[in-house]
Amino acid sequence: MSEGARQLELRETPAGVELWVQVTPRAGMSEVAGVERGALRIRVTAPPVEGAANRALVELLSEVLGVPKRQVRFLGGERSRRKCVLIEGLRADELQARIAARLGA
Fold first, then answer.
1. Residue 8 contacts residue 99 (beta carbons within 8 Å)
2. How far, in Å, CA of 94 to CA of 98, rounded?
3. 48 secondary structure, DSSP code
4. Residue 32 contacts by C-beta under 8 Å, 6 or more apart in sequence?
5. 14 phi and psi, to 5 degrees?
6. Hey, what domains does the chain have and what are their CATH numbers?
7. DSSP H or E run through 102
C-alpha cells in the first residue's frame, strides 16, 4: 500500500467510511493527486459554480473507488474546498487499497 494511502484520516462507521477530501476546481484534468494533511487531494476540471465541482468530485470518487455515485454522500463542507464525504458500503481497508492502487502503489 502506498505511503499516501496510509496517511489518510479515515473513520469507519456502520454505514461506510468517512474521509476528508481537499478539492481543487478548474484544474487541467480531473485526478486523484495524493494525500495532503490527512485528506485525499483531488483535482477536478469543473468550476465551483452551481455545484459543478461537487458533481465532478462525486463522479471521480465513484469511478476511482468502484462504487455507484449514490454511495458517495457529503457530510460537510459542500461549499468549501475541504469536504467530508461518506463512502457507503466500504470498509476502511478496502478504501485504502483502492486509493493506493490509483496512486500507483
1. yes
2. 6
3. S
4. 40, 41, 42, 60, 64, 99, 102, 103
5. -60, -30
6. 3-102 (3.30.1200.10)
7. helix 92-102
Amino acid symbol at 66: G
CA angle 64, 68, 69 (to 5 degrees): 85
Which residue in the block uniquely carries the three cell numbers 478504501?
Answer: 95
Site of grid cell 487531494 = 41
Residue count of the chain, please give it: 105
Residue 18, number of CB atoms within 10 A of its CB: 18
Over residues 14-63, the pLDDT tens digits come to 999 999 999 999 999 999 999 999 999 999 999 999 999 999 999 999 99
**β-pair partners for 11:** 18
Contacts of 79 (CB under 8 A, 6+ apart): none
Q: At what angle do helices 52-65 and 92-102 cross, to 10 degrees?
A: 100
Q: Are 67 and 58 in contact (CB under 8 A)?
A: no
